[in-house]
Amino acid sequence: RPGIRFSDECYVTTNEHGSKYVWVSPEEAVESQTMDQGPPQLLIWGMIGINCKHLVVITKKGNVDSKTYRESILRPSLKKLKENTGLFQQDNARAHCKQGPFFARNRIKTLSSVAPWPARSCDLSPIEQMWELVKRDVSKKGPLGLEELAKFIKQSWDAISMDTVNKLVEGFWNRCKLCVKSQGS
Questions:
Q1: Residue 151 to residues 2, 26, 125, 161: CA-CA distances in angstroms?
Q2: Residue 178 CB: number of other CB atoms within 10 A?
Q3: Pairing relationship of beta strands 4-13 and 19-23 according to DSSP bridges
Q4: Which strands form 4-13's sheet, in the order they lie side by side?
Q5: Residue 70 neighbours by CB under 8 Å, 6+ apart
Q6: Does this model's pTM top 0.70?
Q7: Which entry of 13, 35, 44, 69 is 20 to 30 Å from 63 by CA?
Q8: Nearest-angstrom CA–CA distance, 43 and 73
Q9: What are phi and psi of 121, to 5 degrees?
Q10: Which DSSP string corresponds to 97-159?
Q11: Which sign does the torsion angle of CA 177, 183, 184, 185 carry?
């Protein structure tokens, strides 16, 4: 079995459930206007494998395009990407699919170069279980803003033992067998 490093992005929010602010000028006697504001959130990217755990907190607002993915995630993570042999897994997000030349230049073998990663198959990737552990722990701490949120995310990630990471990654093969046995259901 080849070693695989699993990666993905995830949004983590504070415990706030959003607020509604009403803006009315003193001379207005009409209905107020409402503006929704959601809870503060951060986008994070992580990679796990056997004896491998790496986290990037993304400070850029909005979705991750292919340039942001390459420059803000892959380049700063290049040493970690290269230090572990085996295959690098990423999902079929558009920003990920455009990184073939980057991986070829840096001699990083991807799982998609061996076999296509099935779309919408997050239940196969152990990184999703890592996100659940991080989110549960961050939620218990109740961050009040972006700075606390980033701090608690890093603390939660760091607190997950390498033994736990290794067990999650090793469980991938059993999940694959079950998926094949159930014919993809």
A1: 34, 41, 25, 18
A2: 12
A3: unpaired
A4: 52-58, 41-49, 4-13, 87-89
A5: 99, 102
A6: yes
A7: 35
A8: 11
A9: -120, 40
A10: HTTHHHHHHTT--BHHHHSPPPTT-TTT-THHHHHHHHHHHHHHH---SHHHHHHHHHHHHHH
A11: negative
Instruction: Give dist(CA 64, CA 60) in Å, integer.
Output: 8
| pLDDT for the residue 28 | 62
Q: Is 183 left (phi over 0), alpha (psi -120 to 50) or beta?
A: left
- Per residue in 91-105, pLDDT (tens digit) is 777 788 888 888 889
pLDDT tens per residue across span 10-24? 889 876 444 444 555
**153: which 2 tokens?**
């995310």
Token pair in block for residue 129: 């279980």
Sole residue written with tokens 């607190």: 159
The H or E element containing residue 22 is: strand 19-23
Q: How many whole angstroms separate alpha carbon 112 and alpha carbon 99?
A: 11
Buried/exposed code over 61-74 (b: 16+ C-beta within 10 A; e: otherwise): eeebeeebbbebbb
